Amino acid sequence: MATLPNRQEQVTLDTFLRGIWEENPVFVMLLGMCPVLAVTNSTINAIAMGLATLFVLVASGALVSLLRKLIPKQVRIATYIIIIATFVTMVDYVIQAISLDLYNALGAFIQLIVVNCVILGRAEAYASKQRVGPAVVNALGMGTGFTIALLCLGTVRELLGNGTILGIQVFSSNFEPWVVMVLPPGGFFVLGAWLLLFEWLKQRKAEPAGAAEGATVHES
User: Fold this and answer.
1) pTM attached to this predicted model
2) Closest CA to 121 of 105, 138, 109
3) What is the C-alpha to C-alpha distance for residues 52 and 41, in angstroms, rounded to an integer?
4) Taking the domains of the chain in order of start, what are their residue ranges?
5) Most buried among 57, 135, 140, 152, using CB within 10 Å?
6) Cβ-count burial 19-46 (b if 16+ within 10 Å, e if not)
7) What does the UniProt function comment say about this protein (predicted)?
8) CB atoms within 10 A of CB 179
């Protein structure tokens, strides 16, 4: 988890975008790997888990920020977990009411949002040190980045494993599904491929800056 300053941060576009690119929970910090690998065997599961995590991130971040001056340091972690667990319980009941099939597909990983290190980490490292505005915007960015990462994995795994996206047939009947993609090993294969792509994009982005710095040193 990136070390953040204690000073109050101004809300900017970077406050939101940081969680999507520079501090993406999955592709950069490798956090929350259990749901990333376990529930991304279909696009709908990935979307549901991503949105559930996004809601808990934003709601818990806002409440932790509001109560940051009232929570004693000695019990802050326990307090954060109680706050997070409250919103996870709400999400659990909502998903159960909307679709029992989706609820059963996600299984225990809904409740395990409570111990997702992305959420607890943001509460401790950011929300507890910032005003409500920056805390909510940053949580939105982190939650969006996490959802995008789940969607990247879920879409690829469903497409290659079933030939569908959101249950809609994409390939012809001649397509032979890669069954391994909807099995646990498929999660590791697809995650590894996305991590390679993400790292390559980061290096591509860094090359112009490095070249410009080298040219400046050479001229001087």
Assistant:
1) 0.85
2) 138
3) 17
4) 13-206
5) 57
6) bbbebbbbbbbebbeebbbbbbbbbbbb
7) Part of a membrane-bound complex that couples electron transfer with translocation of ions across the membrane.
8) 11
